[in-house]
């Protein structure tokens, strides 16, 4: 009987976020890449996906690494250059709002994960993805629910994606939307600005709140009064 592929790995207890990576490396399936996205629920701005390979050992400099949502903005900023310095490989992909609208957020997300893995300078032997199965990868992979809190390589990818996206949103030509503050998510301030100004080129028209505002603006003849574009440079 032919052995199953990928080989069955036995996951034993190990401290911190290294359990999954340790089991895969012990089974000879490394290097292990983690992949995660940021901005899936935002109604404006790009979807940003990152892939990261940390290697079998965890540098002391990355002791504070955790799910990016559990870290403060300052902690993420401090970890960002350390992850890039100590990672064996990483790659960040920006998917513009128009592409999210054209493909749908889930399809764009999965495509971004494939692109992020393909862009790694080091080909991984195994990929751990946060939450979603990623079909079409040329190596075995495993979706991990809550992966950015369970695997260090996914946590590192989440920090890379989060900081990259937050920095980009803060650089947008922003005529009153407040992107630097809410990063394109539907906060009360963003909702008020969207209602007052109408959608701009950074908004996702496939999202119902943006679509409703655009439809109202078209019906009242105010559509197109504010079409400021914040263009992606990558």
Automatic annotation (TrEMBL):
It is found in: Cytoplasm. It catalyses: Endonucleolytic cleavage to 5'-phosphomonoester. It comes from the Bacteria. GO terms for biological process: DNA replication, removal of RNA primer; mismatch repair. InterPro entries: RNase_HII, RNase_HII/HIII, RNase_HII/HIII_dom, RNaseH-like_sf, RNaseH_sf. A divalent metal cation binds at residues 36-37, 130. Its main location: cytoplasm. Endonuclease that specifically degrades the RNA of RNA-DNA hybrids. This is Ribonuclease HII. It comes from Mycobacterium novum.
């Amino acid at each position: 009987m032919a052995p199953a592929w990928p080989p069955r790995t036995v996951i034993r207890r190990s401290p911190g976020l290294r359990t999954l990576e340790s089991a895969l490396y012990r089974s000879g399936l490394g290097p292990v890449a983690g992949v995660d996205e940021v901005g899936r629920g935002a109604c404006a701005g790009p979807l940003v996906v990152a892939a990261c390979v940390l290697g079998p050992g965890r540098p002391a400099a990355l002791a504070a690494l955790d799910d990016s949502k559990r870290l403060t903005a300052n902690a993420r900023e401090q970890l960002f250059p350390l992850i890039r310095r100590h990672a064996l490989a990483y790659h960040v992909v920006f998917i513009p709002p128009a592409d999210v609208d054209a493909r749908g957020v889930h399809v764009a997300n999965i495509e971004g994960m494939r692109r992020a893995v393909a862009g790694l300078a080091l080909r991984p032997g195994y990929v751990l993805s946060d939450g979603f199965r990623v079909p079409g990868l040329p190596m075995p992979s495993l979706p991990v629910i809550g992966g950015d809190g369970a695997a260090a390589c996914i946590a590192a990818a989440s920090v890379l994606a989060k900081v990259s996206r937050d920095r980009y949103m803060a650089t947008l030509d922003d005529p009153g939307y407040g992107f630097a503050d809410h990063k394109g998510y539907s906060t009360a301030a963003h909702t008020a600005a969207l209602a007052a100004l109408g959608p701009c080129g950074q908004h996702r028209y496939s999202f119902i709140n943006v679509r409703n505002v655009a439809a109202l603006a078209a019906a009242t003849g105010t559509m197109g009064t504010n079409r400021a574009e914040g263009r992606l440079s990558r």
